[in-house]
Amino acid sequence: AEIPVRKICCIGAGYVGGPTCSVLALNCPDIQVTVVDRNELRINQWNSEKLPIYEPGLEEIVKQCRGKNLFFSTDMAPALKEADLIFISVNTPTKTFGLGKGRAADLKFVESCARLIAEVCDRSKIVVEKSTVPVRSAASIVNVLKANTKPGVSYQVLSNPEFLAEGTAVNDLKNPDRVLIGGEESEEGKKAISALSWVYRHWVSADKIIEMNTWLPMHFLPNESQALMPYPRFVRQPVPMSVKWPRPSGSIPVLDPKFLQASVGWGGSCFQKDILNLVYISESLNLTSVAAYWQQVIDMNEYQKSRFGERIVQSMFNTITDKRIAILGFAFKKNTGDTRESPAIHVAKHLLEEGAFLHIYDPKVEKAQILLDLDQLDEESGISIHTDPYEAAKGTHALVICTEWDQFITYDYQRMYDSMLKPAFVFDGRKILNHSALTKIGFHVETIGKRHGQSFQDHNWAGTNGI
Ligand code: UDX
Ligand code: ADP
């Protein structure tokens, strides 16, 4: 590398920073990686036996690298000072007040990182923006750094958006379909880009590393002429037709089938926040129809979640007051313990409002987190959290599947049925179970995306797929 990268510091030990730096440390034994966070509890957890987040394969990597070339610390200043390259991967939540409230991304944490970097660093560095941020954030980081830089120090700011999905983070990071690196078009900018590119080339082949100027790798704002929005979150090939850079000839943006599974609704920290942000930016640019389009995506998702809750109540003879309902799965998707924006929260609240008693089980979500998400201090208010799915099901009127955990598919449903009140219901919000087998056992089964209730079985519903 033209600029040697021996030490990397990453600010933010969350779902992005933690896995990213672990995979980086694993693949770059010649680089020392220090992940810093102001949250002491989180850092202590990263340094303990029980990591603060669950991702398949992550624990093994952390155990292998921790203390060798991977460190977790709350002591930010020294780590920043000695780093050649700094990743910013702090959270960028939706603003809850002020201009853009409820829609715009709040960049206050990113800005405070830039201020801290400028304050403590006394030699030049590369600063890499990794948080999910709207277009032009790199420019604001540059501005904050420039206005506060110590004499003789200069910064190159790169944009390197993350594409990992929770639940598959380790695999996504080990085998990315692409790595986008954007920077300034100057000589210095190009040097910085090639330094970061050198880091990735430790394990990613050069043809997957796409170098460009800072604006391009950011989330493209669609314009009305583009039918399929070239928004990296949704489109496998995030290349707008109007932009020329190396892409397989003739390739057109297509939706990956892994994004086409019907569900009780999408959740997670990214989709809601990014779409709201897109609505906000579109509105700011007077792209009214684009803004309305994306707002409708949010509205449809809210509708999907509510509709599922309503379906449960309707199917159970229009009342669930004092009925016991087991919720299987609370995370926003399988293979994670994350509940941010999880549709399970929405469904659970709906059922609580209707007066049901909930028995909740999730293989990875902590009890305290579930109670917090449901605004409860303890289990006394109609909610029990279980560590065993059969215990959760026992004595209930219905099972509600909210997360597509693989283990749910292979449970002994006969055993659950035998322990439940009759008629026993299954509401499969992820369409993962064997519905005819459940019906044979005696369950009344309802799912999303297709009709399956026993009352419909005599009819030929072909062609009326959907609810
Ligand atoms: C997403 C993007 O996939 C990833 O590329 C980006 O870097 C970060 O945001 P993530 O939020 O972790 O990743 O999860 P994703 O797998 O996209 O799922 C989001 C939500 O949609 C989940 O609640 C999931 O259960 C739901 N979903 C996903 C569906 O309901 N149906 C699908 O077909 C896919
Ligand atoms: P993401 O999903 O984007 O990784 P997380 O919330 O999981 O988001 O992680 C972001 C981390 O960044 C949190 O652990 C938070 O404590 C940390 N963080 C936010 N702002 C700062 C800051 N100014 N300095 C240090 N750490 C920060």
Automatic annotation (TrEMBL):
Pathway note: Nucleotide-sugar biosynthesis; UDP-alpha-D-glucuronate biosynthesis; UDP-alpha-D-glucuronate from UDP-alpha-D-glucose: step 1/1
The entry's keywords: NAD, Oxidoreductase
Top-level taxon of origin: Eukaryota
Signal peptide limits: none
Pfam families registered for this protein in UniProt: UDPG_MGDP_dh (PF00984), UDPG_MGDP_dh_C (PF03720), UDPG_MGDP_dh_N (PF03721)
UniProt-listed SUPFAM superfamilies: 6-phosphogluconate dehydrogenase C-terminal domain-like, NAD(P)-binding Rossmann-fold domains, UDP-glucose/GDP-mannose dehydrogenase C-terminal domain
Coiled-coil residue windows: none
Enzyme Commission numbers on file: 1.1.1.22
Span of domain UDP-glucose/GDP-mannose dehydrogenase C-terminal: 326-435
Catalytic activity: UDP-alpha-D-glucose + 2 NAD(+) + H2O = UDP-alpha-D-glucuronate + 2 NADH + 3 H(+)
Claim: Acyltransferase is one of the keywords in the record: no
Family assignment from sequence similarity: Belongs to the UDP-glucose/GDP-mannose dehydrogenase family.
Function description: Involved in the biosynthesis of glycosaminoglycans; hyaluronan, chondroitin sulfate, and heparan sulfate.
Official protein name in the record: UDP-glucose 6-dehydrogenase
Organism field: Daphnia magna
